[in-house]
Amino acid sequence: MTGGDMAKPLLGHRSMEGDPSITPAAGRTIGVLGSGDFARSLAIRLVCSGFKVVVGSRNPKRKASLFPSAAEVTFQAEAVKKTDVIFVAVFREHYSTLCDLADVLVGKILVDVSNNTEINHHKESNAEYLASLFPACTVVKGFNVVSAWTLQSGARDGNKQVLICSNNQEAKRTVAEIAQVMGFTPVDMGCMRSACEIENIPLRLLPAWKIPTFLALGLFLCFFTYNLIRQVIHPYIREQKNKLYKIPIEVVNTTLPCVAYVMLSLVYLPGVLAACSQLYYGTKYRRFPDWLDQWLQHRKQIGLLSFFCAALHAVYSLCLPMRRSHRYQLIEMAVKQAVEKKMNIWVEEEVWRMEIYISVGIIALGLLSLLAITSLPSIANSLNWREFSFIQSTLGFIALVISTLHTLTYGWSRAFDENQYKFYLPPTYTLTLLVPCTVILAKVIFSLPCIQQRLLRIRRGWEKGRYVKFVLPSATGEYSSGETSSNV
Ligand code: NAP
Predict the structure, then answer these.
(1) pTM exceeds 0.90 for this model
(2) Whose CA is nearest to atom 9 of ligand 1?
(3) Of 385, 453, 375, 440, nearest in space to 408 by CA
(4) In CATH, what number is assigned to the domain containing residue 130?
(5) Ligand 1 centre and the CA of 36: distance in Å?
(6) Which residue's CA is minimally distant from atom 23 of ligand 1?
């Protein structure tokens, strides 16, 4: 995972926080239409932030007790008359019932906070619909990504960003100013056409996790089937032994590390492919294919899923001795040894293999935990680019190397034992080594000075076969210009 990826702000739009044109607005009167959950939380936060609040309800008498005493609760028309900025905390389907207020709303700013129940539910966004109903008003879309709970608990406990868009710069600035006083970070999302995108944001279900999750599930299914054939189906067909009991723990526990290990290597493989492409074309300005772009963007999630599988593997492994089947096998082994009168069963090589295997496994898991923790936005934001890239890139690669050692010490000489080839299928760990070893080998090749230098030059803008203009200072201090081939 590269620093660039993770250090990126949540949304690639301009944050309006610290904008000198935004001036304090506390003390101003803000209107809220509606008296539901959102309206109530909004009124509480506005009052706490120093604003005067006037709530417009169809039934003010009944609703007044739900609001803080500092907020005035009155009829909709009365509320609208007292302020220039009105939050419309009403569902889209009820917007038309507000049309009676059209005359008193002329020239006012309406803040559309509404959300939909489905992505792209309507042809036009709710904000555009509101604007079409009230052409004499200025509509600003905003605050819909903030929940009533976040409003109540204060900006520090929830998402701090408030996405704002409008066709009117002045109105957008006014709403941004209010958001800032309330402790939120206003983010300018541009003109009203962005409203649809803003309304879709709260409805998206982990969009960045879809591909990595399918990838992890796909790998899990493949390795699970492979292990099932080797550990359960093979003994049943060859020796009529029922090993079905192995499925819930043993088969799962041999599958999880395979997924974790391969996923970890898939975090670093796209970087290797990108470097190969840059070396081949001799430029960094050529676009990567879409699939590689997508892959590069999902490295954080792939890494976190790798950590998740590795953590599960650790827990499963710790629980192995708790199983009844394990206890039976231990007793069976002890009885067998007693019958065969074997006194010393200590195998030095096996002891060392196991000690090293567990130790490197623990180190690999420790490093993966560090990578997972530093990919959390709050931690990532506290690191500078170098620290972040050292942890995610260098330590991440070391984690891959240590995981490879863990896999090799697990396999030891089993790859050369023909009894391990069930149905001629090689042991699972030999398959998992394929991608990680390719990545490690490629990284070693890229670290050779001749290749590293070329890659560095390309990443600093050098291009194969391109003539570049240069400007050199002369002995007299004047500058002379010329052209040279950057290939030289
Ligand atoms: P709610 O609890 O159902 O409140 C809606 C309010 O709309 C009612 O209390 C009602 O107040 C008012 N209203 C005005 N005309 C109406 C009509 N003809 N029929 C029914 N009600 C009418 O909903 P909410 O959760 O506060 O949500 C309000 C808006 O905020 C929605 O657009 C929603 O998408 C948006 N939003 C909510 C959240 C959240 O966490 N709840 C988060 C983001 C955005 P009166 O009876 O006093 O007129």
Answers:
(1) no
(2) 36
(3) 440
(4) 3.40.50.720
(5) 5
(6) 36
Residue of the CA atom closest to atom 33 of ligand 1: 114
Residues in the chain: 488
Q: Looking at per-residue confidence, does 13 or 171 come out higher?
A: 171
| Final residue of a structural domain among 187, 203, 219 | 203
The residue whose CB lies within 8 Å of the most ligand 1 atoms, and thus the one to mutate among 91, 93, 125, is 91
Residue found by looking up tokens 């991608």 in the block:
435
CA of 23 to the centre of ligand 1 (A): 30
Strand 29-33 relative to strand 85-88, pairing: parallel
Residue with tokens 């009844």: 324
Structure tokens at 213: 């999750």
Angle between helices 252-281 and 299-319 (to 10 degrees): 150
Buried b (16+ CB within 10 A) or exposed e, 206-234: eeebeebeebbeebbeebbebbbebbbeb
Residue 245 lies in a domain: yes
Angle at 73 between CA 72 and CA 77, to 5 degrees: 110
Is the pLDDT at 2 greater than 60? The verdict is: no
